[in-house]
């Protein structure tokens, strides 16, 4: 409504989030999926040199848990070029392609995603102009929108700025589709003004991957909930919380939860008679969404509040299998790519 901003002054602003319904109908598909590989906090997934590999901290690991390559800082982004070169973005803001260092613009220090387009150009998402990738929660709590997307075309060209933590890239012939985490949406960047493709997501979108037969897979790394949305509106409380409370215990999204009695959201109907309710409020969740060619959600795979495969940051479809990096669950899952929500 056009008068809502004015009326909010008198009535208070309503805190609403999209429901998990329709294509987002909850299920236990992720918790039921077999484990493809066990490793600490798997993040990025790529098919490289004839096998699926995952980043885990500063290591690149194969499904057997062996270290394929070790880097000087945590790996924050991976992509494989059409010629088979591995592009690696690190938490220290550096980028290498095929083992050779690549010079970056001074503004790029927070590499959250890399992707090669059909024309062989390398796309890069810079999550924040002021914070490193590991401080993503602080970027949200500070309500920043300083992210940017770049493409390497001879030199580096800035395609868009002012983005609220761009976290996933899906290039095509017309440009690139970007997941903008803090605004809960997908954008198309290319010629002209950024075009929203999918808005009002029920979680914070992470990386995108191509799907067989067209469309895409989208990982959502944490859920939205009313308490977090309320805290984001309360400036004085939010700033005091950031100054006085350790980040692990902020009222903020998380990749995993339930590991400490100091965490928020322990009461309020989470447990009854010792049973953790699947529909209870939660800071972490597991969610993967299958999108059609027009980015319309078709179905989704879940690990609910009482599950353990939370914090999904990357998805990779290869040879009829869907590989899913549950960073909060310390495992990579494998599921048939045609599996639909139950």
Explain this structure.
The chain has 342 residues and is mainly beta. The chain has a single domain, classed as 6 Propeller (Neuraminidase), CATH 2.120.10.30. The chain has 5 helices and 26 strands. The strands form 7 sheets. The protein has a 4-stranded antiparallel beta sheet, with no helix packed on it. A 4-stranded antiparallel beta sheet has the order 2-3-4-5, with no helix packed on it. A 4-stranded antiparallel beta sheet has the order 6-7-8-9, with no helix packed on it. The longest helix is centred in the last third of the chain and has 10 residues, at 235-244. It is globular. The mean pLDDT is 91.
List keywords for this structure.
about 350 residues; globular; 5 helices; about 10% helix; mainly beta; NHL repeat containing protein; Neuraminidase
Supply the CATH class: Mainly Beta
CATH topology: Neuraminidase
Average of per-residue pLDDT values: 91
Alpha carbon gyration radius: 19 Å
- DSSP summary: helix tally: 5
| Protein structure class | mainly beta
């Amino acid at each position: 409504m056009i008068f809502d901003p004015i009326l909010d002054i008198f009535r208070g602003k309503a805190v609403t989030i999209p429901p998990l319904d329709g294509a987002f109908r909850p299920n236990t598909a992720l918790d039921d999926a077999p484990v493809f590989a066990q490793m600490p906090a798997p993040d990025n997934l790529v098919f490289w040199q004839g096998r699926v590999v995952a980043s885990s901290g500063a290591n690149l690991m194969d499904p057997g848990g062996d270290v394929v390559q070790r880097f000087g800082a945590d790996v924050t982004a991976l992509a494989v070029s059409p010629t088979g070169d591995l592009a690696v973005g690190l938490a220290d803001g550096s980028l290498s392609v095929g083992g050779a260092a690549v010079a970056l613009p001074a503004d790029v220090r927070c590499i959250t995603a890399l992707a090669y387009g059909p024309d062989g150009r390398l796309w890069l998402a810079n999550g924040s102009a002021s914070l490193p990738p590991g401080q993503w929660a602080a970027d949200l709590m500070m309500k920043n929108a300083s992210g940017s997307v770049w493409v390497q075309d001879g030199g580096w060209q800035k395609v868009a700025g002012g983005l609220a933590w761009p976290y996933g890239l899906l290039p095509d012939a017309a440009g690139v589709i970007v997941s903008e985490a803090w605004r809960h949406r997908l954008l198309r960047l290319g010629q002209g003004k950024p075009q929203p493709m999918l808005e009002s997501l029920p979680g914070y979108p992470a990386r995108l991957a191509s799907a067989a037969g067209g469309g895409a897979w989208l990982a959502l790394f944490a859920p939205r909930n009313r308490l977090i949305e309320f805290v984001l509106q309360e400036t004085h409380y939010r700033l005091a919380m950031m100054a006085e409370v350790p980040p692990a215990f902020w009222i903020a999204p998380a990749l995993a939860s339930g590991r400490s009695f100091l965490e928020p959201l322990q009461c309020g109907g989470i447990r009854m008679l010792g049973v953790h309710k699947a529909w209870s409020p939660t800071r972490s969740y597991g969610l993967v969404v299958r999108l059609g060619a027009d980015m319309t959600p078709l179905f989704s795979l879940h690990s609910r509040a009482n599950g353990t495969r939370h914090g999904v940051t990357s998805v990779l479809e290869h040879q009829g299998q869907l590989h899913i990096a549950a960073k909060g669950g310390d495992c990579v899952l494998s599921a048939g790519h045609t599996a639909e929500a139950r």
